[in-house]
Amino acid sequence: MLKRLGDWLDSRTGHRALLHVALQEKVLGGASWRYVFGSAVVVLILMQAATGVALELYYSPSTTDAWASVNYIETQVLLGSLLRGMHHWGASAIVVLVALHLLQTAWAGAFRAPREMNWLAGFILLQLILGLALTGYLLPWDQKGYWATQVATSIAGTLPLIGPKLQTFLQGGTSYGNLTLTRFHTLHVILLPAALFSVIAAHIALFRKHGVTTPELPAEELERRAEPFYPRQLLYDTVFSAVGVGVVFYLAWRMGAPLEAPADPSSQYLARPEWYFLPLFQLLKYFEGGAELVGTVILPGLAMGFLAGLPFIHTALSRRVPQAHRLLAIALLVGVMGVGGLGALAVRADQSDPAVTALAGRAHEESVEARRLASLGGVPTTGPLELYRNDPLVWGHRLVVTRCQRCHQPCDTTPYTGSPCLEGYASRAWIARFLREPRAPHFYGNTKIDDMEAYTGPQESLDALTEFLYSQGRRADVTVALAQKGQALFDSEGCESCHSLDGVGSGVAPDLKGWGSREWTAAFIRAPGATRFFGELNEMEDFDHIQLPEEELQAVSAWLHSQASQSLKFH
Amino acid sequence: MSEPSTATTTPTRRGLLGALTVLLGGAIAALASVPVLGSLFSPLRAQPRTGSGDAPIPVGNVSEFPVGVPRRVELIRSVTDAWSRSEATTVGAAWVTRHADGSFTALSTICPHLGCGVNMDKQRGLFACPCHTSAFAMDGKFLEGPAPRGMDPLRVEVRGKEVLVHYQRFKQGVPGMEEV
User: Fold this and answer.
1) How far is A112 from chain B (nearest CA, A)?
2) What is the pairing mode between strands B142-144 and B153-159?
């Protein structure tokens, strides 16, 4: 029955003959593990196509939605994290296998006649795969994709003559935005895959025409060892491909794919490309000023030119040099090792730079923060950066970092040379330390304000004074009796001779009624030079409604108010 | 090291190698299929109902509704659509009528036939669907046309001066009201 159905189908389609051609191809010299890399690349590319289509069911290419939809895949879609992980690790695996395939075929001398055209087809495939990798990691519109891809398009912009126009063309405009994303998306899911599959077809057709590049043995020996593609070579290919897919699956399952915080054009982000572009990134460091083009375009262009030109360099060289193909293969191997070495240098430089480590740590924290906020009910339609505004503390902190820390440096800056630092501001520890040494660098030591006397009274009086000042910030956890004792000391110890408590102030020293509360802080930020605050002594600039809109002021005040429950970050 | 040629590969051995290939090929396909199929069928899982989804939607003050004349109101509320959250999205509309005794009724504007938006035909004093000419009485009862049932009533609540509509959607094309 089955056989009759098969016969009928074969008479209509001729599929048996096709299968026969596919499986009975003669492998000269016999099956070998050397030939498995190309097949594995094809298998992984098919896997990328399958996982890519599934990702495409959820991905939305717009600046407001891209990050949110990728985060949705990661957190809401069944096995979505695994899916994205496989696509991510699949890309890396393909780059590794393509490199191995390249080295294997180069070592066998596959660039020699009659396979020149197939070498060129392979070269085009390499470019397409790198293009897919580059366009792919912009799509989540996270910090990494956004900043790393900027570098690539900026390089395009530095090309002589056509540069600026080319950059605008690639970006879809003069800066990054929706049009950049839709262009990269179209390249990544339509144009480049279509080109990739077309050239793969040509690559395999040319391969079938000329066969494997055999080891250098006498023709009759190769003929004696020859066997059909099926079963052994196909099995080898399948075993190796299964290992490759298995490794990708394992990495995706254990590690998933990274998703950094949403792209923020206003942030300071450490732009580092994916590992396979690190060599190019490292190369940029060596060329400055007018010589940048050497690192960005000329050297990579020469290297790629050498790779593409190998068949023709060999033709020219082989007339004079015996074993020219081995020499060229060694040159290529050295070149690839050099590329790898550049990548290793980039990694080493980053590992030994504490600033890089700190920035990377902060990027990770931001990512966790953004994803936590997104989990509280979705990403606003106005875009993921609005997430930060949902939580006044998160937003306030971001504003403090961008607006305040130019003067009020982070407390752990060493040596500390800024205005009073703000982490832990108005906490009990902060107040007690301040009373003891108001001129310490983390307080007013770096300002003109020097007429406040250090408090030298006993510890219990200090505690009471601290509690009284702490109570001004409208805190829930005030010990009332202690604060009252502190208020008595405030008068008797002479604090009131400079600091009023009437909410009006004298211009001599800040009025302390409600000190540390949101209202006090907000009013202070608006006009630190008012009579109620520092008066003539003030050094801080006013933040008016234009400098700091009301809602931002409220966020900053909320963050400062929250610092009273934080610990100090200096000793 | 001598490589076995075709001649020395016995049919049994060929069968074994072939079976192994099919097995491993199947393993590759299975590994790739796990996340692809999982994500593909992800929407079929039971969706967690969001609290705000069922909350009644305010549509205006009592005084804004003339007695006895249906008024069309847009139903606007915050919506979480997959990954994105909007504070104010129009999710539908309703014909709201204030009656002489102070009570309110509301009818969904979605035609129970195939989901077109039902209009009011003031001259004929009835609701008319512009798509397939179904017609309904002012109280929503079915009059004529292909619609399988009358217009779907929505629950109205009056809190103080505020009128609120409980928005629901019902399956189209069936005689009974089944919520979707």
Assistant:
1) 26
2) unpaired
> Rounded to whole angstroms, how far apart are CA atoms A169 and A165?
6
How many other CB atoms are found less than 10 A from the CB of residue A495? Answer: 22
Give the chain B residue whose CA is nearest to the CA of A71. B83
- The continuous run of DSSP H or E covering A280 comes out as helix A278-284
Q: Say whether B82 and A72 touch across the interface (CB within 8 A).
A: yes
Kindly state which CATH superfamily the domain A24-271+308-326 is placed in.
Cytochrome Bc1 Complex; Chain C (1.20.810.10)
Q: What total number of domains does chain B contain?
A: 2
CA gap B88, B76 in Å, rounded: 6
Chain A residues with CB-CB distance to B41 below 8 A: 78
Q: What are the pLDDT digits (tens) for A20-39? A: 998 999 999 999 999 999 99
Q: Beta strand pairing status for B84-98 and A379-380? A: parallel
pLDDT per position as a tens digit, B24-71? 999 999 999 999 999 999 999 977 655 456 788 999 999 999 998 899
CB contact under 8 Å between A57 and B36, yes or no, is: no
Peptide bond into B11 cis (omega under 30): no
Element (H, E) at A228: strand A227-228
Strand partners, B110: B117
Q: Please give the model's pTM, rounded to 2 decimal places.
A: 0.79
Q: Are residues B65 and B92 in the same domain?
A: yes
